[in-house]
């Protein structure tokens, strides 16, 4: 049902994603670093989710304090509540900025992007309500600010529900390798002839039912799970750097040595495999964290 409601927003969503991608491209290397910060690549998971916790938790505290003040006559709460409203509004701005950064890498013309657009639009409206409430409180109209905030709180609650739908039903923002690493090979297992593994060319091999990306550098073979942790793109189709591989879908970059994240939007490292050449065969063992 939510998907049908959000479908008319597809044009808005595609256009917004295009603008965000263009913005970061124009900034060049600085834009890449800024994107990494806003995605939370340095944090190990989404920065957006952290800021949203501040918004929802702070907003809930505001409602509680306002109810105590308005309906139970508690004194001395107005100034403290106003400060929390300011914190909520500022955190809401941060949530919007980080959310837009994550949003630009949703797949175009999909229900996931439609819902993410709906989620973002509702929360932008809700944060506008927080700003109005803060303005009223600053002018001494604390009761008007309370009712405005209560409406905005209902709006962001709906937006948060839709955001949960995007993550938990559509799987956006999760580690796509968390539950799909495949069976661990305790012993070294041959996956292909060493002669077939071209020097310096990302190559896909199968370890049982698990796709693994191999890169040969002389007698050294690097092996990472082929499925990108961000949205499942094939690393074997990506761009090889000196010691990195970049996903072709959204340009997440990982170190070949250990699968750690160099650049987002991915925030989770790639599972790595121990690899060796033995008796003319490339052999793998793992995965390893």
Topology:
Layout: H1 2-6, H2 10-27, H3 29-39, H4 47-72, H5 78-103, H6 111-138, H7 142-168, E1 185-193, E2 203-207, E3 210-217, E4 220-225, E5 239-240, E6 244-246, E7 253-255, E8 261-263, E9 272-278, E10 281-288
Antiparallel strand pairs: 1-10, 2-3, 3-4, 5-6, 6-7, 7-8, 9-10
Helix pairs in contact: 2-3, 2-6, 4-5, 4-7, 5-6, 6-7
Q: Widest sheet: strand order?
A: 5-6-7-8
**Helicity level:** 40-55%
Count of β-strands: 10
Percent of residues in beta strands: 15-25%
Give me the strand/helix succession: HHHHHHHEEEEEEEEEE
Low-confidence stretches: none
Question: Which term fits the overall shape?
Answer: elongated
* Number of domain units: 2
Rg on CA atoms, Å: 24 Å
- Number of contiguous helices: 7
Calculate the terminal CA-CA distance, rounded to whole Å: 39 Å
- Average per-residue pLDDT, rounded, comes to 94
A few lines on this structure:
This protein has 289 residues and is of the alpha+beta class. It is built from seven helices and ten strands. The protein folds into two domains: 167 residues, no CATH class; 104 residues, Rieske Iron-sulfur Protein.
Q: What do these coordinates show?
A:
The protein is an alpha+beta fold. It folds into 2 domains: 2-168, no CATH class; 185-288, Rieske [2Fe-2S] iron-sulphur domain (Rieske Iron-sulfur Protein, 3-layer Sandwich), CATH 2.102.10. It has 7 helices and 10 strands. It has helices at residues 2-6, 10-27, 29-39, 47-72, 78-103, 111-138, 142-168; strands spanning 185-193, 203-207, 210-217, 220-225, 239-240, 244-246, 253-255, 261-263, 272-278, 281-288. Strands 5-6-7-8 form a 4-stranded antiparallel sheet. A hairpin with a 5-residue loop joins strand 7 (253-255) and strand 8 (261-263). Helix 2 crosses helix 6 (111-138). The protein is elongated. The two termini are 39 Å apart. The mean pLDDT is 94.
